[in-house]
TrEMBL record:
Protein name: Cytochrome oxidase subunit II
Cellular compartments annotated: Cell membrane
Keyword presence, Transmembrane helix: yes
Organismal lineage: Bacteria, Pseudomonadati, Planctomycetota, Planctomycetia, Pirellulales
CC terms in the record's Gene Ontology section: plasma membrane
Source species of the chain: Anatilimnocola aggregata
Transmembrane domains' residue ranges: 6-23, 35-55, 70-88, 93-113, 133-157
Chief location bin: membrane
Family: Belongs to the cytochrome ubiquinol oxidase subunit 2 family.
Membrane topology, from the record: Multi-pass membrane protein
UniProt keywords, alphabetically: Cell membrane, Membrane, Transmembrane, Transmembrane helix
Amino acid sequence: MLNGLLALATCAYLAAVYLTNETKGDLREDFRQRAIIAGTLVAILAGIVMAFAWYEAHWFFERLLSPRSLPVVLAGLACFAASAWAVFTRRYIWSRVFAAAEICLLILGWGLAQHPYLVYPDLTFAGTAAPATTLQFLVLSLPVGALLLAPSLYYLYRVFKSE
């Protein structure tokens, strides 16, 4: 449950940070306040989740602090601090860049700590992979799907970004 709340607060933080860059005036200040509240909540929930990970999933906590994943997690935390600084000082473009980098790095750090397990200790990534023919079909069909989807995404972007 706590991980779900952390994910929800993280999405709220990202949304508020991104919307500070898209709005002006009082609405921008409203989203700035929401980003500050959501960011504070993310920090508190992350600390609680880490405490529970140490207590309940010690194997994961140790791997999260291992030399393989710790530098990535620390870089993600630095990006979180930089994003918070940018929100507080009203540097909205930088807050967006640092928030996106923070989330990417923290998810990468989690993946490095979780690797090679999909579900510890029973399921590994290699053990749960689809057959080679299915993976080959997926890899070959993704570019075709992207070519079909890209024009509609471009049109959607143009509609919402036009004055």
